[in-house]
Amino acid sequence: MAVFSLNELASNTANIPLSSLVDGCEMVQLDNRDEALLNRNAFTTVSGKYIGIRASSQPYKLFDRSGKFLCNVGAIGRGPGEYTSIYDDIIDDKNDLIYIAPFIGNILVYKVSGEFVKNIETSHRFINPKLFLSEGVLSVIHRAGLNDKAMAVQFDVNTGQVLKELAPPAHLVGGVQFTEGEIFNTRNAPQVFDFFHTSSDTLYNYDIKSNKILPVFTITYTGSEQLYKQYIQLNKELFMAAVGFLITNPETGRQYYGNYKTVVADLKSKRSSYANVVNDYYGSLSVPNSVVTYRNGYWVHNISSESLIANIRKRLAESSCNENDRQTLTKILSSLNTEDNNVVFIGKLKNELKTNLWQ
Predict the structure, then answer these.
(1) Parallel, antiparallel, or unpaired: how do β-strands 203-207 and 212-220 relate?
(2) Nearest-angstrom CA–CA distance, 291 and 67
(3) Taking burial as the number of CB atoms within 10 A of a residue's CB, which of 46, 66, 331, 359 is the most buried?
(4) How confident is the model at residue 261 (pLDDT cuts 50, 70, 90)?
(5) Residue 2 to residues 140, 266, 293, 314: CA-CA distances in angstroms?
(6) Helix H segments across the chain?
(7) What is the pLDDT, as a whole number, of residue 345?
(8) What is the mean pLDDT of the chain?
(9) Looking at residue 137, what DSSP letter applies?
(10) How far is CA 159 from CA 46, 113, 119, 142, 155, in A?
């Protein structure tokens, strides 16, 4: 397992251009039809053909890569083919299918036309399931306890037959409150099912062929501050962490995590540092870094038009905004309206970095 120390990071913050991490970046204005409008920023899944968006209290919305609204996939409800909330999703371009995992329950399968196909049923009660699809096998990791029969299950996607199961490892589930908290995954590294749980300070890989869960990455810290870490695997050798510090409001006494910083760690060079990633394709706008923005082999930033306008105006007012950035941002600003639907920035993550991030 790769271990990096937060205490040993350089005090300065490296400025990393987005172009170091992705091959190109496109800006997609989503359809403005009423049925396409989003009620909030949301988890966004990008494939080669589609943009899928799941937002609170809305059905799963499917767009093509140009931003044209195609359909609602399924519906909010408790009937056949319906769901009350969505915890994970996969778009299968090859077979034009969408897999949706509710917070609790079986995995639902739909056509890209929005039509419900089937349940992938199991005797397990999946809680917070995360999905991975490869070579006709659907793998599921869920929030299991020691008394559950399986923490990981593999299915044949055609027949729904259970191929393999993995009982909850005692060293993992017994050592943390795995029955609480959240599970995140990114599916960025080819053929790697990565995941981490908010109660376990480690990023894991589920080895599908050997049916094992392996620890692969963590960041240690010996300071007195209480931290929240959100781990992201960008490819097989590059990792990222969003690190938040526990803050106490002096007036109310309320505690919350804030002052988030981004840490980038490269296993090949064994270098790590705090980092600020800027979108050098679009005026060097500062970008968020989380499991929401790095998923399924893409860097994705889904932002409301109103928020994007505010961000552009803030960037234009900065002394570091050069003439090229200014021209790019001014052009974008002239095309936006606060009442428009969200804008999605999309960049394909590089499988391997051929340049030194710290040059």
Answers:
(1) antiparallel
(2) 22
(3) 46
(4) very high
(5) 25, 10, 23, 38
(6) 170-173, 305-316, 323-335
(7) 98
(8) 92
(9) E
(10) 26, 22, 11, 21, 8
282-294: per-residue pLDDT in tens?
999 998 888 889 9
222 token code pair: 């010996």
Q: Name all domains of the chain by residue range, CATH numbers in brackets.
A: 2-304+342-349 (2.120.10.30)
Edge to edge, the sheet with strand 116-120 lists: 88-92, 97-101, 107-111, 116-120
DSSP-based three-state secondary structure for 6: helix
Neighbour tally for 56: CB within 10 Å: 11
pLDDT band at 359 (very low <50, low <70, confident <90, very high): low
Torsion of CA 71, 77, 82, 83, to 10 degrees: 100
In this structure, are residues 167 and 152 in contact, taking their beta carbons and an 8 Å threshold?
Answer: no
Three-class SS of 201-267: CCEEEEECCCCEEEEEEEEECCCCCCEEEEEEECCCCEEEEEEEEEEECCCCCCEEEEEEEEEEEEC
Cα–Cα–Cα angle for 335, 337, 339, nearest 5°?
Answer: 150
CA 187-193-199 angle, 5° bins? 95
Cβ-proximal residues to 250 (8 Å cutoff; 6+ apart), any chain: none
> Is residue 112 within 8 Å of residue 119, measured between CB atoms?
no
CA–CA distances in Å: residue 14 to residues 17, 126, 170, 186, 273: 10, 41, 39, 23, 7
Over 60: is that where the pLDDT of 150 sits? yes
Cβ–Cβ under 8 Å, residues 326 and 319? no
pLDDT tens per residue across span 160-190? 999 999 998 776 655 455 556 889 999 999 8
Cα angle: 67, vertex 349, 327; to 5 degrees: 60
- Distance, C-alpha 253 to centroid of its chain: 31
**CA-CA distance, 289 to 18, in Å (whole number)?**
11
Cβ atoms of residues 342 and 302 within 8 Å: yes
